UniProtKB/TrEMBL annotation:
CDD domains: D-aminoacylase
Lineage of origin: Bacteria, Bacillati, Actinomycetota, Actinomycetes, Streptosporangiales
Pfam short name (any one): Amidohydro_3
UniProt source species: Nonomuraea roseola
Coiled-coil ranges per UniProt: none
TM stretches of this protein: none
Name under which the protein is recorded: Amidohydrolase family protein
Residue ranges occupied by any Amidohydrolase domain in the UniProt entry: 45-493
Amino acid sequence: MTFDVVISGGRVLDGTGAPAFRADIGITGERITAVGRLEGADAAQVIDASGRFVAPGFIDCHAHGDALVFDPEVQLAALRQGVTTFVLGQDGLSYAPGSAATVNYATRYFAAVNGVHPLLDGAASVADLLAGYDRATALNTAYLLPHGTIRYDVMGASPDAASASELTQMLAHVEKGLADGAVGLSSGLEYLPGRNASSAELAALCRPLGALPYVTHMRAYGTGAGVGMAEVVEIARSSGAAMHVSHLHGPADVLLPLVESALAHGVDLSFDTYPYLRGSTILAMIVLPPQVPAAEVDRALDVLESSSLADWWPTLDGLWPRLTVSHAPGEEWAEGLTIVEAAGRKGVSPSEFCRRLLVDTRLEAGCVVGRPDEGPEGEESVRRVLRHPAHTGGSDGIYVGGHPHPRGWGAFARFLGTHVRELGDWTWEEAVVHLASHPARRFGLGDRGLLRQGLAADVVVIDPVKVADLATYAAPRTPATGISEVLVSGVRVLSDGALTGRTPGRALRPTS
């Protein structure tokens, strides 16, 4: 027997949930061609996995690497956690499909989340976007059709309900995007213009999805998650589509009954979480009231420069200590400081500092936000929610800014080091189901997520003793440890913990 690569001596976690077993993995080209005892086999490369686990590459179900997946630092951050695939197009906002004006809007409005795509210039289709990712990065990418981008392309920033003609145009975008290879449809119902959509509009756009999921950043989370989940159930009933809730967070006593109720009503439901209590997003979404037209920057800045929000700012006094500046172009000195700390350095009130920051960055500022449930009860809720069988892993990684949330560098390593090894929330076998095989099934990536003969050779080698997240809120850009060997499509992209410079990542399309 002759192979290009043999990974020898490890204990295989194949993704089925079956107990780990001692086996070698033989790889030829992009595929796994043997799983078993391969003593005496010839191979161009042999990776000794003795004392370690061998698992399928993990799929990050919610990552904001749409532009920054080309950045070697981001590739290293993911691969050092065993992540070999990013699911992009999240929260209803990304670069395609749309005209040049739409691409410009999505880029500007979500600049603190997705950044600026280095290759796009003008209008972009899903096919264009996927072609740019293919074999241009060490990671695989899969793409969700972003509802907000599609709505903006058809309706601009209009808050109105979609007309029959506009809905027809949006449906055409969905059908074309699915034909181009999208793995589902996403929405961001706390962002613009997505929050202007009705559940009827969303359900209509879900009907062409078939087995692929509708992935939603709901209208409400935390103690208000019932509002968001009720809409999820309504859309599922109306469209028949599978549902996937993004970054489900809040008290477990609220969330888990909602999940169980949806499942009991026949909803094909899954969700992702990240194992942290703080979130991260654009500052404008957190602090501005609905009447500010944040989708139209110049109009929004006029409002911010006026006195019309004088009665609004005092209502946010309890929020300021929970906000840390993550991205502040032109005001980088403030990155890593809370709004209160930064305001103190400027000698102004927190509300005045925040107002000026939004104006000076033209709404581009980003933040890390502490949730009200932060503390022991919140940690226990995280643990209970991630143990649910409908759970999948997602980092919600944002790689923009000088002081981002550490989840992009640590979420998957934290799942393994903290929640498997230290706390026992999952077994190692269960972890691979949550982080690889379940996500692959959910997004129709039938040749990923398992270590099985004939499937794509996305393979990670895990040291169960050493794997851990090292990124913190103080030092967020710190790569994880304990995963030093990773292959993507049979090519070694991480060797001895360092990037090899190879870029075999594929733009994935649904296979089942």
